[in-house]
Design brief:
The complex is a heterodimer of chains A (308) and B (262).
Chain A: E1 10-19, E2 22-32, E3 37-41, H1 48-55, E4 63-68, E5 71-72, H2 77-83, E6 84-87, H3 99-109, H4 114-127, H5 143-155, E7 161-165, H6 173-187, E8 192-197, H7 200-206, E9 209-214, E10 217-222, H8 224-231, E11 235-240, H9 244-252, E12 255-260, E13 263-268, H10 274-281, E14 287-291, H11 294-302
Parallel strand pairs in A: 3-8, 3-9, 6-7, 7-8
Antiparallel strand pairs in A: 1-2, 1-4, 4-5, 9-10, 11-13, 11-14, 12-13
Chain B: H1 2-6, H2 12-25, H3 27-30, H4 32-52, E1 55-58, E2 61-64, H5 65-96, H6 99-103, H7 110-138, H8 150-169, H9 179-192, H10 204-212, H11 214-227, H12 234-260
Antiparallel strand pairs in B: 1-2
Classes of the chains: A alpha/beta (308), B mainly alpha (262).
The structure holds adenosine-5'-diphosphate (ADP) and magnesium ion.
Residues 19, 22, 24, 42, 44-50 of chain A line the site of adenosine-5'-diphosphate (ADP).
Chain lengths: 308, 262
């Protein structure tokens, strides 16, 4: 059960899922190494949830396979789920129980002895700063508190792999940063993390590696910095209130030009001298020159068309 | 189907335990209906209807109306409690509360969850039937010790109606659709299932229909137990209830699994 040395924590091979009429996931393959924190990025409907639900044994793959530390998700789901801590996209805390009881009942499903569950629950509630809300009803918790409780619940069985599906979607910045702080704290413990998100900052803050998916396929896989470097380079020029001559000039430079509504985006192939060049030729032009980010990569790869 | 049965495990009891925990945290209010229901029926039928109908002929001899009817309401309680639990209550847990989803993130499998729900709905029928048996006993309406047979009858009867309920839970698109089985299956059994009048007074065709209804057999069993009055073809009803409960439980399990695993 401990697997071989160098065995991936998660190995997905050509995973496919077809719902009636919809090809949600169309051949997704990737590995996650033990201790690695990997972000699964994609717009709404890209197939992130479907993929992680296949890995966590909720959904049988239509074809392909997945293993967790070498254990096949199809043939040994109980053993796989024992190793996983799952934070689902939709909160599914038990509204019939208070905060503490949510953890105590959950621990029983893993067959953890009562006294041990209690000790872990107390410790985890302190960890997610809910130590003083043990007797609160779930309905009384804010969105951020619920999310933290879900995280505590996912950690109850001391998982080797954490699977977090959009852990901070819908939270305010304070609540989001509170979750990030806890997740960074967990990194130090060596737990493997696969998290889905469409917040680029979240991926950049937390992940060693990101996998960009769309329309059920993997588009790109690499470290955040290397993806930015490879896909958009160093710098981005954003301009507004510009004349056609300005757009034409940028278009003549090596790089990629994009016009979105009344805004111009230019991704120069070599960024160093663009600023000087623009200062000389178009001194009054309203513009912003900034570092390229993962968000630029994301928009380049998945397009700007609205989803949903 | 075979893998479904193979995946069943003692872990289903964890699901049962979860539902039981919720129930027993509010046991004071939960115990009230099965305590009061028989008293209400006995008052209404004893003081009211019983004045009009002095006795009925049952199993070849005359019987006071209250004595005849009391075991019937135990059968009805077995049906209602298990059916409600496995339809409305299970649906709320499955669809609105996402309770099943949360449990499926643990080593439990879908089969454990479904079996746990079946067993819990069955348990609710057993709890209600046992409380009612106690109340009827206190009112002097139960023959002992045969009355204790009500407990195993409530198990198989409860499993039978839980399975019917869960079968509908596997099919409905909205919670209001439970009105369909409620009024086409449960209410006809309630009124024609041998609870309020002896079915032998029905015309032949209606009698044949009545003997097909599960509640008729469950009521026949509870009545035989509570009156301490075994008729020679009692075993037919016993076999019917046990066989139907096990068969329907297997079907409900398979159908629910199809709903829960897309
Ligand atoms: N149960 C389902 N039945 C049918 N289609 C589904 C179901 N779940 C998801 N889909 C479809 O599959 C695609 C991928 O969905 P999902 O994995 O939830 O994407 P993401 O998590 O990246 O937003 C979407 O087009 C979605 O509409
Ligand atoms: Mg999703």
């Amino acid at each position: 059960m401990n697997g071989l040395p160098n065995e991936p924590a998660i190995a997905a091979r050509d995973l496919c899922k077809a719902y009636s009429g919809v090809d949600a996931v169309r051949g997704v393959s990737f590995d996650v190494a033990p201790g690695e924190v990997v972000g699964f990025l994609g717009p709404n409907g890209a197939g992130k949830t479907t993929t992680v639900r296949m890995i966590s044994c909720f959904l049988p793959p239509t074809s392909g396979s997945a293993t967790v530390y070498g254990v096949d998700v199809r043939s040994r789901p109980r053993d796989v789920k024992r190793m996983l801590g799952i934070c689902p996209q939709e909160d599914n805390l038990d509204p019939d129980f208070d905060v503490l009881k949510n953890l105590l009942a959950y621990g029983r499903y893993f067959g953890i002895p009562g006294r041990e569950i209690r000790a872990r629950a107390e410790r985890l509630l302190d960890f997610v700063q809910l130590g003083d809300r043990k007797k609160s009803a779930v309905q009384e918790l804010s969105g951020g508190m619920k999310r933290r409780l879900v995280l505590a619940r996912a950690l109850l069985n001391e998982p080797r792999v954490l699977i977090l599906d959009e852990p901070t979607t819908g939270l305010d910045p304070q609540a989001r940063h509170a979750i990030w702080t806890r997740l960074r704290g967990l990194r130090a413990t060596g737990v493997t993390v696969l998290l889905t998100t469409h917040y680029m900052e979240e991926a950049a803050q937390l992940c060693d590696r990101v996998i960009v998916v769309d329309h059920g396929r993997v588009l790109m896989d690499g470290s955040p910095a290397s993806l930015v470097e490879r896909e958009v380079g160093h710098t981005v020029v954003e301009a507004w209130n510009y004349e056609p001559t300005f757009a034409a000039f940028l278009g003549s430079l090596p790089g990629r030009l994009e016009e979105v509504g009344d805004r111009l985006y230019f991704y120069p192939a070599a960024g160093d001298h663009v600023e000087r060049l623009l200062d000389e030729r178009f001194p009054g032009q309203e513009r912003l020159i900034r570092r390229a980010t993962l968000e630029d990569v994301f928009l380049k790869l998945t397009g700007r068309a609205l989803r949903d | 189907m075979r893998s479904t049965l193979r995946n069943l495990s003692f872990r289903a009891l964890r699901v049962w335990q979860r539902d039981a925990d919720v129930y027993f945290t509010t046991w004071k209010t939960e115990f009230l209906p099965p305590l009061l229901e028989p008293i209400l029926y006995v008052l209404a039928f004893g003081l009211g209807l019983g004045q009009l109908i002095h006795h009925v002929v049952y199993n070849g001899h005359a019987l006071g109306y209250l004595e005849f009817m009391a075991p019937g309401i135990v059968a009805v309680a077995i049906m209602f409690w298990s059916f409600f639990e496995s339809t409305f209550a299970s649906y709320v847990r499955m669809y609105y509360q996402k309770t099943f989803d949360a449990i499926l993130a643990t080593p439990l499998l879908v089969e454990d969850v479904i079996l746990g729900e079946l067993l819990w709905a069955t348990s609710k029928a057993m709890i209600a039937a046992t409380i009612m048996l106690g109340v009827l006993g206190a009112l002097g309406l139960v023959a002992w010790p045969t009355g204790l047979w009500v407990v195993p009858i409530a198990f198989f009867g409860g499993l039978l109606f839980s399975a019917i309920g869960l079968l509908f839970t596997s099919m409905v698109k909205t919670i209001s659709q439970f009105n369909v089985p409620m009024f086409t299956i449960i209410m006809p059994m309630f009124t024609f299932g041998g609870t309020f009048f002896p079915i032998d007074i029905l015309p032949r065709w209606a009698l044949a229909v009545a003997w097909c209804l599960p509640l008729t057999h469950v009521a026949f069993l509870t009545r035989s137990a509570i009156l301490g009055d075994a008729s020679p073809h009692l075993w037919v009803s016993a076999v019917y209830v046990v066989a139907a409960s096990l068969a329907l439980a297997a079907v409900a399990l398979a159908r629910m699994k199809r709903r829960l695993v897309p």
